[in-house]
């Protein structure tokens, strides 16, 4: 699950903002966006770091045990409920509708309070609807948990299925709390308040860390389930207090539900296409979880650790770059500058590939030592390291495709085509499940990772063919040559790092020092190969990173 925020500002050059995190006055949209971007970036970084801490703590206590498999499997159910009722599809729709409620009401220079009251009523109506819908779905899930568990974890033992059902009942409290908190996140963003929303996800993750550290041993991973619920409650409460401070009142909205029907209907209309696509992704995860339940204990836990590690470069480079480019895409499409849009999209795909292709080689060559350094303690032994490293390699193989997809989907959205990416995404997820079913019996958990990577490449080809018809040249004009050079650099760097790790292992060098040698060999060989092959994109990226870290080129004598 990913919690994201998006800021929408009115078209005027300046506006007077309500008190936002202690700041008042007239600020330009650029200043508002910059401030919001910094806050969200810092909050996201804190949440990701805490997420890594969570994985380290959980791995030390539970390793890749069958008990952790049950927790990971149980999490699929609340994730599915959250996605269908109040996930990212709803969040994207809320920003547009909430902004219209706040600014549309006073567009004729009416009293500013009119827009604020309208926003509170609309946000309250949506929060009330999400609360009721998620509570009803969660209640049904709790009642039927004893039937859901055998379907989700068919390969688990009868005792394991009973424990799975118990954890599903606990975790189904999460989407009720988290979904309502998601509505408040969008409400606060539209009101220009970002400090609390930026750090609320860190509070959610922190509760899980505390639960893993202090819960009694006999509770097992049930402690993580209760920590998850506590984290969702914190996520809701901290934002609820801030929303109350700027006038959010749920009773006010409930009394005026009839006057917000059109706004709620607009939210449902806007979230429809994305809901189908995201629901397909979650259902594919449910299906592959069922497949993994037949594999040896720890397989599902290893896949979970590996996916979290694979998401680090994907989130840090691909998603952030694509999000930053999206406003440019949308502006060029709106002005009918389709040749420029194709050129911009091509450059962004190239920029993301500069990070994604080396990340694949790094996962193969450096991954085992990195996993041992991060997680290799207490319950997370050599077998856990091997399981997670092989899963990471399988997932990492698809990183270039996942990165390109981030750009392709935003290009499609800029062209106001929501349906095609959704249809292709549903097809890809169906292929993912089919491939996982075919590969898992022979390849184990690695087959599940390979299936997702293969499905991502198929999705890139299908969506890319559609985009080429509307944006000729978006994947051409030297992009193929760039990808070939980047691939060659990645292979050279990966082989150098793998050889260094192998030799260091033979000499008995400790894993921490071995990892440093791996990274040094990878970096030096990548830069050398980039210079030899003329891959200036890697050299330019390395130079820009060095400058950000404070390095300055010495003056010529």
Task: State the main characteristics.
globular; 557 residues; mainly alpha; two-stranded antiparallel ribbon; disordered N terminus
Concise summary:
The chain has 21 helices and two strands.
Topology:
Blueprint: E1 15-20, E2 23-27, H1 29-62, H2 66-86, H3 88-104, H4 112-143, H5 145-152, H6 158-171, H7 174-190, H8 195-214, H9 222-245, H10 250-255, H11 261-292, H12 299-334, H13 338-365, H14 367-375, H15 382-396, H16 399-414, H17 419-443, H18 445-470, H19 479-506, H20 511-533, H21 536-548
Antiparallel strand pairs: 1-2
Would you write up a description of this structure?
With 557 residues, the chain is mostly helical. Among the domains are: 23-272, no CATH class; 475-548, no CATH class. Helices cover 80% and strands 2% of the residues. It contains 21 helices and 2 strands. The chain has a two-stranded antiparallel sheet. The longest helix has 36 residues, at 299-334. The chain is globular and about 70 Å long. The chain starts with 14 loop residues before the first strand and ends in a 9-residue tail after the last helix. The model is unreliable at 1-26 and 105-111 (pLDDT under 50).
């Amino acid at each position: 699950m990913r919690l994201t925020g998006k800021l929408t500002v009115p078209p005027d050059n300046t506006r007077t903002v309500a008190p936002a995190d202690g700041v008042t006055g007239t600020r330009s949209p650029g200043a508002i966006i910059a401030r919001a971007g910094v806050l969200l970036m810092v909050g996201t970084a804190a949440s990701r770091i805490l997420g890594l801490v969570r994985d380290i703590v959980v791995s030390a206590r539970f390793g890749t045990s069958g008990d952790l498999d049950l927790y990971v499997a149980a999490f699929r159910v609340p994730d599915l409920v959250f996605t269908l009722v109040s996930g990212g599809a709803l969040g994207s729709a809320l920003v547009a509708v909430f902004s219209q409620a706040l600014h549309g009401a006073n567009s004729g220079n009416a009293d500013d309070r009119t827009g604020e009251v309208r926003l509170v009523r609309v946000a309250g109506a949506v929060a009330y609807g999400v609360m009721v819908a998620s509570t009803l779905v969660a209640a049904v899930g709790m009642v039927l948990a004893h039937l859901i568990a055998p379907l989700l974890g068919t390969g688990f033992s009868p005792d394991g299925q009973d424990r799975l059902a118990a954890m599903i009942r606990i975790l189904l409290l999460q989407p009720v709390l988290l979904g309502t908190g998601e509505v408040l996140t969008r409400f606060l963003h539209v009101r220009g308040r970002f400090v609390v929303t930026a750090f609320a996800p860190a509070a959610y993750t922190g509760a899980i860390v505390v639960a893993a550290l202090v819960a009694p041993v006999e509770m097992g991973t049930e402690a993580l389930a209760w920590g998850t619920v506590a984290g969702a409650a914190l996520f809701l409460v901290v934002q609820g207090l801030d929303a109350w401070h700027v006038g959010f009142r749920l009773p006010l909205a409930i009394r005026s539900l009839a006057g917000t029907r059109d706004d709620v209907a607009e939210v449902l209309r806007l979230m429809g296409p994305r809901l189908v696509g995201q629901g397909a992704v979650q259902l594919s995860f449910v299906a592959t979880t069922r497949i993994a339940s037949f594999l040896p204990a720890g397989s599902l836990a290893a896949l979970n650790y590996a996916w979290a590690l694979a998401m680090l470069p994907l989130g840090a480079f691909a998603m952030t770059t694509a999000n930053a480019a999206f406003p440019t895409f949308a502006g060029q499409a709106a002005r009918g500058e389709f040749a420029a849009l194709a050129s911009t999209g091509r450059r962004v795909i190239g920029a993301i590939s500069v990070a994604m292709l080396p990340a694949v080689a790094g996962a193969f060559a450096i991954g085992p030592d990195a996993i041992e350094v991060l997680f290799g303690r207490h319950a997370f032994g050599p077998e856990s390291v091997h399981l997670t490293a092989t899963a990471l390699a399988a997932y990492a193989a698809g990183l270039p495709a996942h990165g390109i997809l981030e750009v392709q989907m935003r290009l499609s959205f800029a062209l106001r085509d929501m349906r095609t990416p959704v249809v292709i995404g549903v097809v890809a997820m169906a292929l993912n499940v089919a491939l996982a079913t075919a590969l898992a019996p022979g390849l184990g958990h690695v087959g599940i990772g390979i299936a997702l990577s293969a499905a991502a490449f198929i999705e890139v080809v299908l969506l890319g063919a559609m985009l080429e018809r509307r944006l000729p040249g978006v994947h051409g004009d030297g992009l193929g040559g760039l990808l070939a050079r980047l691939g060659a650099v990645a292979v050279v760097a990966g082989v150098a790092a793998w050889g260094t790790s192998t030799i260091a292992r033979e000499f008995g060098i400790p894993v921490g020092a071995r990892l440093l040698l791996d990274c040094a060999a990878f970096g030096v060989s990548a830069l050398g190969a980039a210079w030899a092959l003329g891959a200036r994109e890697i050299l330019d990226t390395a130079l820009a990173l060095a400058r950000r870290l404070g390095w300055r080129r010495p003056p010529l004598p």
